[in-house]
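Dear colleagues,

As part of the handover before I leave the project, I'm documenting each prediction I ran so the next person doesn't have to rerun anything. This entry is a single chain, and its sequence is reproduced below.
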Amino acid sequence: MAVPTQGTTFEVAEIYPVGEEGNTDAAIDLRQGVVFFQYFEDLMSPVITAKMGVTASGSGVYHTLPIRGGEEVKLHFTSPWELHNEESPGLLELTMYVNKISNYESEKQKESFVLELVSKEGIVNLNKRVIKKYKATKISDIIKDFLKLVECEYEDENIETTQNTYNFIGNMRKPFTLAPTLSSRAIPEGANSASAGFFLWQTKTGMKFKSIETIIKNKKENTVHTYKYSRINKGGEDPEDTYNNILQYTIAMNNNVMGAQSEGSYSTYRIYWNPYTFKFTEPSVSVFKPEGQESLGSDESPITEEAKPENIPSPEMAHRIVTGVYSVGCLEEKVDEAVVGAAATTVNMDNIEDVSQSISRYASLFTQVITLTVAMNVELEAGDIIKLVFPKVSEEDDVDHAQSGLYIIKELSHFISGNKSYSALKVIRDTSGD
């Protein structure tokens, strides 16, 4: 398939000395020296990263600039898909920073090395610590505060509001170290009792904080592209069709019954101890079974009879036991007789509301995992939903409705080298069927 894997053109590939950011007179043009470029996004990463192989002739650039880490790199390129599709320019423009230099080699009049790049937020995060106390603050507002701390600009519509609040102290930890814990406990506004679980991640268009429930609920609006797999290689006969093809794919996982049981995807039994009342969680609310969750598929592969939590005999009750100690009254400014009956006995955040829910939600989302390669398309982002269409083994024109359907892009990588370029994706979903 020669058409979708043709080369990509770099419009800009410049590196600036530390302290000379934006000074075009000090910039060095790397366009002629780029050997390969690979860009990464991940639904579970608050920073974007990249690798760029460089070869320089003459006096070189490694010692001339010099490159020692922290240099700003500006990149701008156009992929074959954007050149083909005039209605969708989708140019990829990035400003990243050198994290480290590896694989340096030098010969007479020639040197080569790899620049490992990261977004600014990844570097700034390691300079910051969360020292504040947040009192009954919405988790989404705490996340916004973290983003300001790492000097990250964001669009308000990309930060979803949470309905639950949290009494919380940063304890001098890094913002992006704390963010995953808070994200897992966040519940979207107006959600049901089975929908805890958010992602905080960065894409080429900025930082995003969204719940799993919302990403899936808005699947029709969020579906950005449709790819199909064909065993017939049409070559360059139909460029439009070729650009929408899955070049190759692997089903990395299609359900893991024992894994889902062990993780608590189907059911959990919650036991929490209140140090003020010396009581444990009431058995009537201890068992959690996910109900009413949004799904990407049609659930053509329900839980096998042997794994159903209804078949677990008493007193086991559930596949996984979750335990903990309630945080009671420990973050109040003052505890005396006037507040002993109220603030001193308040649970800072009830684990019953979110812990088992997020365990189930995250685990179910990885029920099906597929890795695939498609023609390079820089419009795709981690967190997008794409539709995949696979044929049945028996007939090319007959769709496999169990494997086909909507998937979330969990990981994304754009690769450019010489006269070829493509996008590699890892996609996930919670249920089978389209």
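The first strand starts at residue 9 and ends at 16. The first helix runs from residue 80 to 84.

All the best with the project,
I.
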